[in-house]
Amino acid sequence: MFKQAIISELKKHVKGEISLEVPPDHKLGDFAFPCFTLAKEFKKSPVQIAQELAGKIKVQGVRVSATGPYVNFFLDTAGVAKSLMLDILTQKKRFASSRDGEGRIVGIDFSSPNIGKPLHFGNLRTTMLGNSIARLHEFAGFNVLRLNYLGDWGTQFGTLIHAYLTWGDKKRFKEHPVEHLVELYVRFNKEAENSAELKEKAREWFAKLEKGDAMALKLWSKFKHLCLDELRGVYKTLGITFDSFNGEAFYAPKVEAALERVQAKGLAVVDDGALIIRMQGSEMPMMLRKRDGSTTYASRDVATVLDRIETLKCNKLVYVVGHEQSQHFQHLFALMKLLGYDKEFVHVSYGLYLSQDGSKMSTRKGTGISMEGVLNEAIALAKKTIEEKNPGLKDKEKIACDVAIGAIFFGDMMNDRSKDIVFDLDRFVSFEGDTGPYLMYTHARAASIVRKGKEQKVSPKKAAKFEVLKHPAEDRVIKLLSAFPQKVKEALAVHKPHVLAQYLLEVGHAFNEFYHSCPCLQEENKDLKVARLTLIEASRQILENGLRLLGITAPFEM
Fold this sequence. Notes:
Strand order of the largest sheet: 5-4-9-10
Mean pLDDT: 93
Radius of gyration: 28 Å
Low-confidence stretches: none
Strand content: 5-15%
CATH architecture of the largest domain: 3-Layer(aba) Sandwich
Number of domains: 3
Helix content: 40-55%
Shape: globular
Number of strands: 12
Largest sheet: 4 strands, parallel
Number of helices: 22
């Protein structure tokens, strides 16, 4: 909030883009503006420019001075606290929200697993990232549509149908349908490595499915609904909802009309029996129809995007899909521009989850880790730690579940999404170090102090005497809390939740240092006690808001 005010004031005196730095030493201020690049424009030395700017810039609650070629900005702690605490305690869960996206509809395509497989950790990256990105958009006033584009069509169904008819066990399928389908899928792919005939059988069954073969459709429908029921259960546990589960099968009948529009524009050509688009700047063409006449993933995506723009009225479409599909989305978005759609298209790419040995997890090879198994193990680990720390805690089961889910979510989203992550459940669930449980415990600690304060007839106050907060640890927390709105905007702008997650870790560390350095409930000076309790409640609220934007429930007891 103060950073933006400083930039606005600088713009009155300086042309071009303005970027503030954070000095390496707090004694040099909270922000600094380097004047080196202004020497040519002002025809003066950077030192002279800094001195002149320091004399002109006026921002309420900020002291301005010049040190060499830098203009330094020092925030007035009491002034910042007075304004900040009022806003946080008044707006509460809405603090840092905005109306920037008001009137805009954003469709966010995430999770989108292939039917016939359970959710494993690889699928979960898109699910967690997409959920957080959806929450960030909602917080900014967008009308958000959560779109789960199910992989419920395609050659993998030819694989499953042939495998089920060849090796399926009806009793096993009835008792554990999804597990059995995965077993069949893995077996097929292992045997198909040395059998071109098996691969051809899968293609034949998918071709039958596309032509409406009764047996193929019956098995496809059964597989889809059983798998979707299981998926809904997992999403419910994770606290994630969707507005649509329309997948590839829903859009398959719309493909031909979409391809006719592409051909009418003269964008596609027939090459060796296949319908393709030669994309400028790319050696690989975009294939819209195979030689055998069957549709492709790309052609179904074209139909999907057109429907989302024209039927759902989306102004912005965000696809949370792994980086291995970057070229596909470059082609898809370029095609939409050629068709005349000037919308905002974003591919939120991300790296892989790797096993401890560094290998990629894969359901096809049988190396994927099931989400259900991971959740159960994480809950058991969280429950064990909670039992040790607080054996008398009520609702241990629910809190352990919330902590386990929060641990997994944060373990992912504290990392830049563009990087691969080694899956380490023990590290994710640990209450020590930079983890989700550490932040959740910090939130619970803050909530506990506020409760105990109320028992002593002391409550947080919007108009506390914040000038009594003079300790460096208090100063650090206040200034960090003031950065929350900017961090929320930044995380949304780059579609990277780790920006917010890393900031929350800073808040957690600063709060715990403040907690150990500045006793609150034992403080005899009432003004100081009330001011500190107010700062504790504000810190708790920021942690709650930030964790919620990551999809994590902040517990009030642990």
